[in-house]
Write a structure and sequence with these properties.
single chain, 279 residues, alpha/beta, nine-stranded parallel sheet, two-stranded antiparallel sheet
Length: 279
């Protein structure tokens, strides 16, 4: 199982020294990936860096850990411009990018960015198809409902061709999201309970078979909070998710309102007590 960690950027509130130390420590502890959240502008929300910019900074001060924005609200972004940003980040990091993709649920954020909230799912589907072409072909001819490109392409292309895209969804994904996972993604972030995972898997894999894709083509990543009143409960959750055959796990030190230095000490303690090895 690949074991990574969520960077607690909200609780670090712009402390770049703490962010640097946490990211480098996570890599040094053998964790496989680092996740950062996305948010552009919403009312009443806390401190949050733009993920692609932050990950460019982290790419320069790390060397092996995978960089995972999770999840990018794709339909509020201009597709070709985002494709260029992602390709650049993948090049700068030596091919260490895995993109989380979602459509978001804040209608106000769409309004602020002058984007249509009502068709965000259909637009996201087309964007994912186009992104794969932009990351793999030097010259593109593409005609869709929202994009038209002829005789042009990105230069340079990313190291990974294409960059992997994973879907962020609700606990029990809707039919359009299940289709998006099955047809366009390399995996999904598991937000349902362990009891509901079988139902979600069955829905995704049944849809995937219609397009000739196999279950082993999809990764699955759950999250486990390692803070809270029951300090050792996280160990059983890690073991439980591992027994269910997930490919990835993301540890979270955020949510416990820790002082900034304690995020790192908590992570070090957790890795020392981890019932599994990261791989």
């Amino acid at each position: 199982m690949h074991i990574g960690v969520s960077l607690p950027v909200r609780e670090m509130e712009g402390d770049l020294t703490a962010i640097r130390d946490f990211a480098q420590a996570a890599e040094g502890l053998g964790l496989t990936h680092l996740r950062v959240p996305d948010q552009i502008m919403r009312p009443g929300t806390g401190y949050l860096h733009e993920p692609m910019m932050l990950l460019s900074y982290l790419a320069a001060i790390t060397s092996t850990i995978e960089l995972v924005p999770s999840v990018i609200i794709l339909p509020v972004r201009q597709t070709v411009h985002f494709a260029k940003q992602a390709a650049e980040l993948d090049d700068l990091s030596g091919g260490r990018v895995r993109l989380g993709i979602g459509v978001g649920g804040s209608e106000q954020e769409y309004q602020y960015l002058n984007m249509d909230f009502s068709n965000r799912g259909k637009r996201c589907d087309e964007q994912m198809v186009l992104l794969k072409k932009l990351w793999t072909e030097e010259d593109i001819d593409f005609q869709g409902s929202f994009h038209t490109i002829s005789g042009a392409g990105l230069n340079p292309l990313p190291k990974q061709r294409p960059i992997p895209m994973w879907i962020g969804a609700r606990s029990i994904p809707s039919v359009p999201v299940v289709k998006r996972i099955a047809r366009h993604s390399d995996g999904w972030f598991v937000l349902c309970s362990p009891e509901d995972l079988g139902q979600v898997r069955d829905a995704v894999f049944t849809e995937a078979e219609k397009t000739g894709r196999q279950p082993d083509e999809f990764g699955q990543e759950a999250g486990v909070a390692v803070v809270g009143p029951r300090k050792d409960e996280w160990k059983s959750r890690v073991s439980n998710w591992n027994s269910m055959g997930l490919s990835h796990l993301c540890l979270r030190t955020l949510g416990g309102h820790l002082p900034v230095p304690q995020h790192l000490t908590t992570l070090e303690r957790v890795i020392d007590e981890m019932p599994l090895d990261a791989s």
